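Subject: complex prediction, re-run

Hi both,

The earlier run crashed halfway through, so I resubmitted it with identical inputs.
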Amino acid sequence: MSEKFKLRFEFEKSGRIRFISHLDLLRVMQRVFKRAGVPLWHSEGFNPHPYIAFGQPLSLGHEGLCEIVDTALTEECADPAALCAAINAVAPEGLRMLRAWVPTRPLKEIVYADYETLVFDAAEADIPEMLSRVTGEKCVVLKKSGKKFVELDIIPLIRSVKMEPAAEGVRILSRVACGASKVLNPQYIADGAVGRQGVSARHKRICLLDGEENIFC
Amino acid sequence: MNEFEKAERFLCEVQKPARYTGGEYGEVKKDLSEVSVRYAYGFPDTYEIGMSNLGLRILYGLTNSIEGVWCERVFAPWPDMEEKMREHGVRLYGLESGDAIRNFDMVSFSLAYELCYTNMLNMLDLAGIPLLAAERGEGDPIILAGGHCTFNPEPAADFVDIFLIGEGEELNREVVELYRDMKAAGRSRAEFLSESVKIPGVYVPAFYDVSYGADGCISAVTPRCGAPARVEKRIVRDMDKAYWPDTYPIPNTEVVHDRVMTEVFRGCTRGCRFCQAGHVTRPIREKSPDTVVEQTIRHLEFSGGEEVSLTSLSTSDYRGLQEACDKLIAYCEPRSISISLPSLRADSVSMALLERVSKVRKSGLTFAPEAGSQRLRDVINKNLTEEEIEGACTNAFASGWNSVKLYFMLGLPTETEEDIEGIAELANRLVFLWRQNAQNKNRGLKITVSTSSFVPKPGTPFQWFGQNTKEELEAKIAFLREKMTAKAVTYNWHEPEVSCLEGIFARGDRRLGAVILEAWKRGAKFDGWDDYFDYGRWMDCFAACGMDPSWYNARQRGMEEILPWDHIETGVSRRFLARGWEAALRGETLPECSARCGGCGADRLKGGKCDV
Ligand code: SF4
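This time it finished cleanly. Structure:
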């Protein structure tokens, strides 16, 4: 097997491209690497495939400002900044590599994420009630699981939550579980706060954090 | 807030929202201060289908290459998206800008098949554009339409301002440039329409009066406003010099075909009498192998694609195939790019080539004998003999292939029970050949026989033929089902209803506009999709409009009858088609163009001999 040089990228997925699914993102990444001529390492065997692993999948419709993707090259990357620039030149709108480095920590050390959520169906006056709903002992929302809905108590999955008025509604800043074992989609905070399923909201993942709540890198 | 920004609020609630966002690599964005004409390239089907279309890649690039013109894409939203758009008052928007196409200068529709008419209407309605050309005025976009359906544009005549007949590389540019220049000069919509008919290939249906006789047939088609009596289709004479885009939008989400596609020639040398494409795309014009290779590499490098397909109606007939493939293999192999060659004949040369280009997956072999007996194959001029099929299968079975797909049509002219039985017999003979020749029988054999129902199309020697009725076709399917006894053979058939409807519109006249409008009002859309096609509803609409559908599809036309599309010239003469019809009835074949020019007349458009 050829030698493998791991490389970690921090990237942004914002604007219109937030509407592609995680699976599509994987395909787009592969295409972009190919167009940029990135010397991707491939597994051996009948159906060789490259190594591409994401920190945490980003839900369809969510923007991410510091997403993580790991990959492996067949050679050492001499100039990560130049590589990022080469990739960005052939990437679709909204997908942008911010930096690249040789990883030292495994992806499974990601435990939390910070989100900024804009709730459209709410106003400043609603903030106290919204906040009390998601900071109480228990806050049960309906979570989609396959074709059914199941009840989920979101309180144990919320690390912290703040709210502030915004031009288009209410902004929620939350730190939630975002690891291999526990994960919370911030849509459920919006649903829990408003007290209704399927609240109209827009989400942005601001950063990924480790168990000590330091930025993961 | 533009339309896309309004839609963003609910996009997460619809299936596959990436279809409605634009923003792909290769999308063209322009600075509005440098744009004087806004153009929407409309595709009346889903994003996944439209984005797999080579025509879109070419015409999108072409239109955007015109100075001062910004061409955006727009597809038919799936009904869940449509519902949300209507609920929130979002108008159909161009994917590039997110702006309502209502305010564009021109909206074109690519009409590839008859069942997309209701989608065109639905898109116009979602855009907020009046559906009827007669109701559009100053300030409304000019509605254009091109594509194979326009070789009989009449059923859509009420809805379209300008039909673009034939190939678009030169025609579309001329029309858009004329519009741009007349707009700059402050000329009106009406003035533009009148002026446009001076461009060969432009058909403005409103400028033609159609009158009918007591028998319901057309008695005269009279042009007005300086429109030509006959509109001749446009072609590109030299394929090596024709426009080919450097870039095109690469979808971010999965579509039907994401691969690089390079057309190797236009037209067809075969002359199968049922085939509309083979006739209306004539004369035969090839690209040189060097052009094919250069254009393919250009798109592979741009897209980062891993698969290329060389397309045409019959790629084995491309004289430069060996040379082009040799050069492409040299480029593709070291880069793990695969080459696919659809519509390859099952002759030995092609098979050898196929083995070389594809990373040999010995699974499927495909043949389209179209008819079950040699007699009927002669009628339809399908030059594929039993010996050829059996020879190819014998070789293929011996070298490890173990599945064969066979395609046939039911309802061809002069068809008898023996012809239909012949389909089952051919399948049985292949089972026998496999038993004799297969090296390894453990894996078993799978033969799939599929039948579709024949739809007579304009511009072919069968354009006069009365299509089999739904009942006749259903009886034929039932008959064949009974004959299909071998265990290794699976029989699939298309329900005839879709073909019957297609048969109505394929040869319809402009009186059908009322039925299309009625069907749309009653909710018809995505008629090409099984989930949405509703034959009963269509029949109700015919009844409501007081029209007899069988007059359009099942009626044998008289050879002297004025046909609704007679004033649209494909280059193939009506005399040649009539000769073909008579020869078909006598079971006489026509040699293919490479052996001898059959004198169809299309070479006149080329101004020289065909590339055969
Ligand atoms: S002009 Fe002759 S060679 Fe050309 S397409 Fe017609 S029949 Fe064939």
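The pocket of iron/sulfur cluster is lined by residues B 267, 282-284, 593, 597-600, 602-603, 610, 612 (CB under 6 Å).

- K.
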